[in-house]
């Protein structure tokens, strides 16, 4: 079995790496059957075109598109209207011009009205509907379409789309099971990837769902919502991420899927998105804390998620900027940095190195969109860094407090952690740092006492004479390492650092920074 990328990172993640194809019959090419179910306006045609073209381009082939009720010129207008110039010339409408065999031109969609013989049937004939949906009549129409598309393209299409299966034509949920089975078997025998679209006004059983390998249900958003929904209700050739995922149709792009956060623990994107190993051997320890004496027994800083927090925005950013910039021998640590800045604030403050990349993200995104956007953009930037032979030194994201005005602030912070974890699994040996300004508090009962969230439950850690201290933000609960910046009053007045390894519960500090006037 092989997997073909769909062209959408989010959908690939949901499907466990792309569309699964399986060679089933003798010498036949690998194939699969896909059913897209949904109501009007759910995006079935747009997603079908994306999937069909992704597979066709992967196979260096074309698409035969059987229009049952949608006219070919309507399909062409929709595709070009959505994608603009890049969609021009993709959808071919009759009369088709003959192409050369083994043409190197991009994959094309040969669309035509499916001839089922309905035009010759008398409308008052009660047997007409049964005759229309007979396997022989439907098969003859599809055979004719494939034959003409092969002649026009100069090569056999490897993808067949039927748009759409409607009860109005006797081809929807009321279609005979024999019809569904034989169409799917026909595609397997011919080595075709079959994409079927079914109108679904309500949730009812369908013979097409039983016969096909992969079933996706698309739904239009509720009134006032801004995103559609998509769910994988069947995946015969491999597990898929469960639950409902958000999706949207973007102008110039097409449909994009934003997986729910649980999907990131389920699978990985397509294989072709793998990043090369940045470092051949484990690099030296690069903590570089701005303290008088750095402990020499700190755990490995790389291959983990570190959260830096404190009540002073400028100093938290300054501390995050220093982490991992020097090796154990004091020399500058090589490589580029990627900065993810929610809201785009303080872009000028994060870096002045031309080899670094800054990625601003909107703080008003949904958690699903945020996780997808950050993951995709960071992986793209990381791949670019390695292709330029720079090496990836660190990935930094913050200030996470930019999400504080959102009703979904906690979920947004979690989405950022989920994205960081996904990148961490792909970009090996890369330090990932999240930083957040945490509001100060004063404890009248136990001044300077703070709870540090632990992976296996909270562990109390005393900060003697510290008043006020930063409140550990929610994002710290998911970190491997926590760096806490606090203000210490009294004779040793100044900013101090605590480091906690939440995997073991061990702490270091307070580590004194040079005394300075409190701002």
Write down the Rg.
28 Å
Q: Which structural class do the helices and strands define?
A: alpha/beta
Mean residue pLDDT: 80
Side by side, the strands of the main sheet go 5-6-4-7-8-3-9-10-11-12
- Indicate the proportion of strand residues: 25-35%
Shape: elongated
Which percent bin holds the helix content?
Answer: 25-40%
Largest sheet geometry = 10 strands, mixed
Question: What is the terminal-to-terminal distance?
Answer: 62 Å
SS field, number of helical segments: 11
Indicate the low-confidence ranges by residue numbers.
Answer: 100-104, 119-129, 270-274, 276-280, 442-470
- The count of DSSP E runs of length 2 or more, i.e. the number of strands, is 24
Provide a concise account of the structure shown.
The protein is built from eleven helices and 24 strands. It is α/β, with parallel strands linked by helices.
Can you characterise this structure?
The protein is α/β, with parallel strands linked by helices. The chain is built from eleven helices and 24 strands. It has a ten-stranded mixed sheet, sandwiched between helices. Strands 15-14-16-17-13-22-23-24 form an eight-stranded mixed sheet, sandwiched between helices. Strand 23 (494-501) and strand 24 form a beta hairpin. Helix 10 packs parallel to helix 11 (409-426). The protein is elongated. Residues 100-104, 119-129, 270-274, 276-280 and 442-470 have low confidence and may be disordered.
Give the helix/strand layout.
Layout: E1 2-4, H1 9-14, E2 19-21, E3 32-38, H2 44-59, E4 63-67, H3 72-83, E5 91-92, E6 109-113, H4 128-132, H5 135-153, E7 159-165, H6 177-190, E8 193-199, H7 207-211, E9 214-219, E10 228-235, E11 244-250, E12 254-258, E13 305-310, H8 313-322, E14 336-342, H9 347-350, E15 357-361, H10 367-387, E16 392-397, H11 409-426, E17 431-437, E18 440-441, E19 449-452, E20 459-462, E21 469-470, E22 481-488, E23 494-501, E24 506-512
Parallel strand pairs: 3-8, 3-9, 4-6, 4-7, 5-6, 7-8, 13-17, 13-22, 14-15, 14-16, 16-17
Antiparallel strand pairs: 1-2, 9-10, 10-11, 11-12, 18-21, 19-20, 22-23, 23-24
Helix pairs in contact: 10-11
């Amino acid at each position: 079995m092989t997997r073909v990328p769909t062209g959408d990172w989010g959908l690939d993640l949901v499907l466990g790496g792309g569309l699964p194809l399986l060679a089933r019959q003798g010498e036949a090419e690998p194939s699969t059957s896909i059913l897209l179910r949904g109501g009007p306006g759910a995006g079935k045609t747009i997603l079908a075109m994306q999937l069909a073209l992704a597979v066709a381009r992967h196979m260096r082939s074309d698409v035969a598109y059987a229009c049952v009720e949608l006219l070919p010129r309507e399909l062409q207008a929709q595709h070009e209207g959505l994608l603009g110039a890049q969609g021009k010339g993709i959808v071919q409408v009759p009369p088709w011009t003959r192409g050369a065999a083994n043409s190197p031109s991009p994959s094309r969609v040969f669309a035509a009205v499916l001839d089922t013989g309905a035009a010759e049937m008398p409308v008052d004939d009660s047997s007409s509907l049964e005759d229309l949906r007979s396997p022989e009549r439907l098969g003859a129409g599809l055979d004719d379409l494939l034959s003409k598309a092969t002649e026009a393209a100069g090569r056999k299409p490897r993808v067949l789309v039927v748009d759409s299966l409607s009860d109005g034509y006797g081809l929807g949920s009321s279609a005979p099971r024999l019809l569904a089975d034989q169409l799917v078997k026909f595609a397997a025998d011919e080595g075709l990837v079959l994409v079927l679209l079914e109108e679904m006004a309500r949730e009812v059983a369908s013979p097409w769902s039983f016969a096909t390998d992969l079933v996706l249900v698309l739904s239009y958003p509720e009134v006032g919502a801004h995103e559609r929904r998509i769910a994988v209700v069947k995946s015969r050739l491999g597990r898929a991420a469960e639950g409902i995922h958000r999706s949207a149709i973007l102008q110039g792009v097409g449909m994009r899927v934003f997986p729910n956060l649980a999907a990131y623990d389920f699978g990985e994107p397509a294989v072709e998105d793998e990043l090369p190993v940045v470092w051949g051997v484990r690099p030296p320890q690069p903590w570089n804390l701005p303290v008088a004496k750095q402990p020499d027994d700190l755990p490995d800083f790389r291959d983990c998620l570190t959260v830096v927090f404190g009540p002073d925005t400028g100093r938290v950013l300054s501390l995050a900027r220093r982490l991992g910039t020097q090796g154990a021998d004091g020399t500058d640590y090589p490589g580029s940095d990627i900065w993810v800045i929610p809201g785009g604030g303080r872009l000028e403050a994060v870096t002045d190195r031309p080899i670094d990349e800054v990625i601003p993200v909107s703080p008003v995104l949904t958690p699903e969109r945020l996780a997808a956007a950050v993951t995709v953009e960071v992986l793209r930037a990381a791949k670019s860094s390695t292709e330029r032979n720079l090496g990836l030194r660190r990935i930094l994201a913050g200030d996470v407090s930019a999400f504080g005005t959102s009703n979904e602030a906690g979920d947004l912070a979690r989405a950022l952690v989920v994205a960081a974890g996904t990148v961490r699994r792909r970009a090996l040996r890369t330090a990932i740092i999240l930083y957040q300004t945490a509001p100060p508090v004063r404890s009248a009962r136990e001044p300077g006492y703070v709870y540090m969230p632990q992976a296996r439950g909270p562990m109390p850690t005393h900060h003697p004479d510290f008043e006020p201290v930063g409140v550990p933000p929610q994002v710290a609960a998911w970190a491997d390492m926590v760096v806490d910046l606090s203000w210490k009053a009294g004779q040793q007045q100044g900013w101090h650092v605590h480091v906690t390894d939440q995997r073991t519960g061990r702490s270091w500090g307070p580590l004194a920074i040079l005394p300075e006037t409190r701002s």
